[in-house]
Amino acid sequence: MVRSPRDVVQRVRRLRLGGRRALERFYSREHDPFHFDSNPYEAGKFDDLLGVIGEGPFRLALEIGCSIGSFTERLAPRCEALLATDIAQSAVDRARDRLADLPQVQVERRTIPREMPDGEFDLIVCSDVLYYLPTGRLRRMLGLLSDRLAPHGSIVSLHWLGEHGAPVSGDAVHDLQETAWSDLDHVAKLHREGVGPHGAGYRLDRYDRR
Question: pLDDT digit string (tens) for 123-143?
Fold first, then answer.
């Protein structure tokens, strides 16, 4: 059975309240618990992400919340080097196996924003991940993302807009981004309506460093 994004987000919200161990158990029960590889909704979302990201090539890219590497695999050919991170070691292990033939990809277990990687990135991708952070940590996270963005670099952010019980709504994430990244150029805005559970859709934004 293909679960809807709402079902999955609600489950992960409960798991996150239970801590990282609960999230590891979540991954232990199923290879692809988010159904990234089988859900047409996810495939369409990935297509929109790549369309907004552009062809590149990107010297150094960062993907936060890579899960098992489904989108990472599609993004990698556009990157000279790509660092993909996830909070769950089980997900990281599967992503590493999946991406083993892509030498430009490095996958690391990191708890963001506490373990934000150093350096400047030409591309930063955050898909369905920032609304798991309470408002205070989210504001800090947005500041760190801007700090890590290289000159002429891009931040691309996508979040589902349905009701899922996470600390912050998808709309709130993207509204906060407009304030936090006011020094960046807001070069792409997409509000995809009528897709996903209940047609809630998602928002997709790209910000570039002037």
Answer: 999 999 999 899 999 999 999
Token match 């990135």: residue?
Answer: 121
DSSP secondary structure code for residue 193 in this structure = -
- Do residues 92 and 109 touch, judged by C-beta distance below 8 A? yes
Which one, of 81, 77, 82, 84, lies nearest residue 55 by Cα? 77
C-beta of residue 35 within 8 angstroms of C-beta of residue 3: yes
Span 5-208: which CATH code? Answer: 3.40.50.150
Q: Kindly write down the DSSP assignment for every residue of 26-72, as one continuous string.
A: HHHT-SSTT-TTT-HHHHHHHHHHHHHH-S--BSSEEEE--TTSHHH
Whole-number Å distance between alpha carbons of 92 and 84:
9
Instruction: For the full predicted model, state whether its pTM sits above 0.70.
Output: yes
**Domain extents for the chain?**
5-208
Q: Which residues of the chain have pLDDT under 70?
A: 1-24
